[in-house]
Each structure stands twice: as C-alpha cells, then as structure tokens.
Amino acid sequence: MTLAELTVAEFLQLDLVPLASAVLACVTCGLLGTLLLLTRNSMLGDAVSHAVLPGIVAGFWVTGTRAALPMVGGAIAAALAAVALIGLVRRLARLEAGAAMGVVFSGMFALGLVLLVRSGADRVDLDLGCVLYGALETLIWPEATGLASLADRAALVALPGQFLLLAAMFAVTVLALALFWKELRLAAFDPAFGAVIGFDPRPVRALLMLLIAAACVAAFWAVGSILVIAALIGPPAIARLLTERYAAQFLLAAAAGAAIAVAGYAAAALVPAAMGAAVGFNAAGMIAVMAGFGFALAAVASPFRPALRRRRAAASRA
Amino acid sequence: MSGDLLAALTLAAGHNAAVVVLGCTAFGAAVGLVGTFVLLRGRALIADVAAHATLPGVAAAFIGATLAGLDPRSLWLLMAGGATTAALGALAVRGAVATGRVRDDAAMALVLSAGFGAGVVLMSVVQSLPTGGQAGLSHFILGQAAGMAVAEAEALALLALVAAAALALLFNPLRALCFDAGFAAAAGLPVRALDLALMGLMLLVTVAGLRAVGLILVVALMVIPAVTARLLTDRLSAMAPLAALFGAASGWVGASVSAAAPGLPTGAVVTLAACALFLVALLFSPSRGVLAALLRHATLAWRIARDHMLRGAWEELERQRLGPAAPFAAAAVAEAWGWSPLRAGATAFVLRRAGLIERGGEPGFLRLTQAGIAAARGVVRRHRVWELYLTRAGGVRAFAAHRGADLIEHTLPPEVEAEVEAWLEAADPALARLAVPPPVEGARA
Fold this sequence. Notes:
The structure holds 2 protein chains of 2 kinds. The longest helix of chain A is centred in the last third of the chain and has 41 residues, at 202-242. Chain A contains 14 helices and no strands. Chain A has a single domain, classed as ABC transporter involved in vitamin B12 uptake, BtuC (Orthogonal Bundle), CATH 1.10.3470. Chain A has helices spanning 3-38, 42-51, 53-63, 68-93, 97-120, 128-133, 153-157, 161-179, 181-189, 191-196, 202-242, 246-275, 283-301, 306-317. By secondary structure, chain A is mainly alpha-helical. In chain A, α1 (3-38) crosses α8, α1 crosses α12 and α12 (246-275) packs across α13. Chain B is mostly helical. Chain B contains 22 helices and 3 strands. A 3-stranded antiparallel sheet of chain B has the order 1-3-2. The relative contact order of chain B is 0.10. The chains are: A mainly alpha, B mainly alpha. Chains A and B meet through α2, α4, α5, α6 and α11 of A and α3, α5, α6, α13 and α15 of B.
C-alpha cells in the first residue's frame, strides 16, 4: 500500500462520514429553515430543536439502542406536545408567543436533560456532551479500506446508522419540497390570498413542523441539540442576504449549508494542525461559527446592503 | 437520596451546603425580580442570546488566564469574560437586524448558535490545555450548585440585594418604560438609559448565575417565575414580589436537589421546579387558570341550555295557544333547537332538578313550575326586547335580529337590558308592549 492509498483509507474511515453527515445535516436543515425564515417562524425552529430532547431520550430509553424510528417517533410526539402546549399557554395565560415558547421549550429541554441523566448516565451512546456539542467525531466508518469500499455492498451496509438516517431525511425533505412546492410558497408569501381561494395552510404547516422535528433528530448526532439552530437559521439567513427569488433562495440556502459544513469541518481539522496543536477543534461548534461568519460575509457583499440601497434610491431620485 | 434531599431542603446538611442553598435561593429571587421587567419589556429572547453568548467569553478568559500564568479558576475573571461576549452578542443582534434583510428572531437565533458554537470550539481548546480543567468549565453550561464555594454563594446573595435595591429605586420609571415606552419618553424619562440599566442588570444576573444554574437555562429562571406571577395578578407591584418568591423557591429546590444528587444538572432541576410552580398556577389561578376557565365555560353552557329550554317551552306553548302552566311536548322543544334526544333529556333532567319544570302528566310531556314560568317570561322578554331593538335601532332584518339576539341574550348585563327597554319605550310605546310576554292567566299570543 502506498502512502497515498493509506491517506485515502484514513480519510474514508475517519473523515468522509462525519463530513458527509455535516453537509447533509446543514443542507436538510437549511432547506427546512428557509421555510421557517420566510414564514417568520425562526423561533419555532429554536423551540422545536430544544423540545424534541425528551422525545429522543424516551425513544432511546424504551429501546435501549440508537434505532432511529423510536427516537424519530418520540421526537415528533414531543414536538407535537410542545406546539400544543405553546398554544395552550398562549391562550390561557394570554402571553406573547415568545414568552410562551420560552416557558415550554426550556421546560421540555430541562425535562429531557434530567431524563437523560437519570436513565442513561452509564450509557456511552447518548450523553450530555452529545446534546451540547454534537458527536460528529464518533461517526467513523472502520470498514472502509480504500476507494473500492464506496462500491462495496458489505462496507456500505456497515455505514453508521446516523449517517443513513440523515441521508434518508435529506431525501424526504427534497421530496416534500418538490411535492408541495406551490402550497408551501402560498403559505409562506400570501396566506391572505390562500384564504380567499380556499386554501387551508394548516396541513402544510403541520407537515413542515413534523419534518423539522425529524430533521432535529437526524441532525442530533451531527451537531447536537443547540447547534442545530445554526444549521436551521444560518443558511437561509445567508441566502436571504443574497437573493429575492423564491427558488434561488432554496438553492442558495442549500449551497450555503454545504459551504458552512465543509468550511467548519475543514477549519476544525486544519486550523489546530497548522497551529501545531495535538487535538482538533469541535467541528459542530466550528460549523456554527462559520454560519455566523458566512452571514457577516454575505452582509458585506449583499447586493441589498443598506449603503447600496441608499445609493440606488438617490440615483432614482436624481 | 430522599433523606439527603430533606436535609438539604431544611438546611440541615452542614454549614457549607446550607450557605449554598441560601445563596441560590437569594439568587433565584433576584433573577425572578429582574425577569419580571425583562419579560414585560419584551427582552426575554435577547436575554437567552446573551446567556448563550457568555460561553466563548468564559472559555477565552480561562485560556487567556492560563497562558498569562494567572489563576484560570478565578470566578471574577471568568464572569468578566462572559459579560463581555454577552454584550457583544447583543450588539451583534442589532447589527444583523440592521442589514434589513432578516427579522430580529432570525438574527437572535443566528447569534445565539454562532456564539454558543464559538464557545464550544474554545471549550475543545481548553480541553487540550495542560491544566485540563475542563470539568470545572462545563459546569457553567448546565449549572452545578453542589460544588460551589461558600464565598461564591455569599456573592450571589450580595448580588440579589444589589439587584433588588436597584429595581426598588427604578421601580416607577421602569414601570412606565415596560407598559408604555412612548409615554415614558414623552414624560421626559431617559428611556435609553433605563433600557441600558435593565440590560445591565440582566447581564449581571446572567453571568452571576453561570455557576449555579448554567448559561443554557438561566433564561428559564428569568422568564418562568415572571410568567407564573403574571398568571396570578394584573398588578406590577404584586407581580414583581411574586416572581421573586417563585424564583427563590425554584433556586432553593434546585440547590437542594443538587446537594442530594450531584450528578444532576442544577439548571435543569431549577427549571423543572419553576415549571412545576407554573403548572400549578396555570391550573388553579382564580382569574386565568384552566379550572377557572372551565368553570366559566360550564356555567355559561348551563345558562344557555336553561334559557333555550325555557324559551323553547314558552314558544311551543304560544304556538299551541295554551296557558303557560299547560303541559308541552318535550320533543317539540328539542326539535326547535335541533337537540338530540340525549341532550334534550339531559337538559330537561337538570331543569327538573333546578325546580324550573316538572313532569306534565302524560309521558313525554313537561310543564313549567311557578318559578319556571317567571324565569321563562324573563328570558323571552329579554330575547324580544333585544330583537326589537336590533330591528328598530340597528335596521337589522328580522331573521338576522333573531340570530343576533340568540347569540347575545345570555350574557346581556341587566343595565344594558334596562337601557334598551327605555329606548324602545321612548321610540315606540306600542311596540315596546309587544315585547312583553302576556301574563300568566288567559295567555294568548
């Protein structure tokens, strides 16, 4: 085996799956987050990403494994409960939406944390660190021996389950977007017109909520419970700075998601190596930082930035 | 564990533990107090952003102190670092909103996660430092009251006093700011300075709470007691002390549980304690609680069913040209209202128990009692007076007037009824008399 082959095998074993998982998580969340951003519901993403934790823990607790379906089911149930509770608290306590969300999602997150510690303190698969920092580094693919493994059935079957869940979630998201493109657009841009032509936006919104809950579970191992907000809001916010078109907004959000994932992962691996440090940075944290950095960059380069807008307004006056 | 918990709750688990529990209790009171104003000013989410943005500051201060050869565990240094990045985070939100392309909720979510992410990255650097004291720092995220030093707990208590004193001094101007910022500005209050002062207090309790409740859930301790107090009162002068009380109770329970079960994240326990109080208030609040709302609902539903049954009976009797004391067919009333036999039977049963109707001899027939006749006359009168008023004064058509009267007659206050009757009397005395149902004897509509 040559040195190059060795490096390729190492890359496939240690880096390919985490990198691909990060990209899939950021692209999927970015696409769904675009709909949140356009419907002015960014806080809902924050709320759902926190509120699914007790569902994930309960699903894990019941089966004792990282099987995906119970956890996705638990997370969806928790998200539904959270939305119902938020509505109830808003109506009964006559609170503004933000405060009602704050009460419900921090309560459910706290419940999830306590359940996590009480039920699975001895388990290595699911711990507090995973919730807070993500566990991207654990998604290794030891069966990979070289480029040939990418076409090897036996090796592909041994890919980490979390990666497969993310890939499935990505496919479902793209499919849902393709199927409900028109309806989602109507619900996002002109609910009043929708009401006039007898279109009920509630099923579409419910679908979006379910997708986000499922995406939060899928992204859980990649970026954890808190940094998933960066994946949900960062890419669409960057895209929003760069375009005014509906389709371009989605494409740019997907591209921005992939870009922050790759940039974050690379920076986490390469910056400490360049500085001569022995350990890498936390990749999930770096992805969130890149989301903020990307937003700042896009704000400076935005064709819609305030300085340009003022200049254009002055030109049209003159 | 329950024995340990009881000891901690009653401050009987030793001097150190008692001081920590008392410090956390005082701190909870301070956060609840500050949270009242933060919530009413609509700054709860900014507080959450600031709290998450303390992490990079704390970690950077730790790294900097290690590199500079200072003691990296100095709490004051870490808190100063946290406060700096928290303030920067709040500024970053303003900057993101100033692009004019994203709303403040998206800007806050972005800054929150990017700030926390930067903190996570720096934490992984801390882990690789030779001092390797990451275990201590990770407590800043979810809180760990159990290991607190006595001096830290005393500092928390002192802080609670400072916050309470500041809020007591600024109570009136802050009240004006929270309820009507425009009025506050017009009245010559320094609105910007007041907002800054509130922001400063918020940052102060946030960084002070890092050790005790952690940065992720400190906002829960800020919001939930205030919301709980809001459920119980409409007065700020009562809401602020109540929120302080609930915050103190949450801090007390959280620190005690932490002493008994050191593995649990204190922030989560404090939040759950606050949530438990919130749920109790949500269920049992006399004005806004779930039970009170259900009771109001049930009372109204009963009144509507009673009114409908009585008026249905009266109209059936009129149609049959019978006296009010004559028996009428229950099925006819049920048909008039579109009631199922079950619902009609249940309504009739309840009205019989209330002494308003009685069995009318033949099966399937009912009869109004003396009390029922009086009540029915009142109901019919109210309906017709309102119907006439709607047609005459509002120019509403007869059928619409009937529907409108149906909707409103059950909740019409007596003084409005009297006013409407007086108006009708003045407008058209002959018509006004029509509205009044005929007397008991010789009833003929």
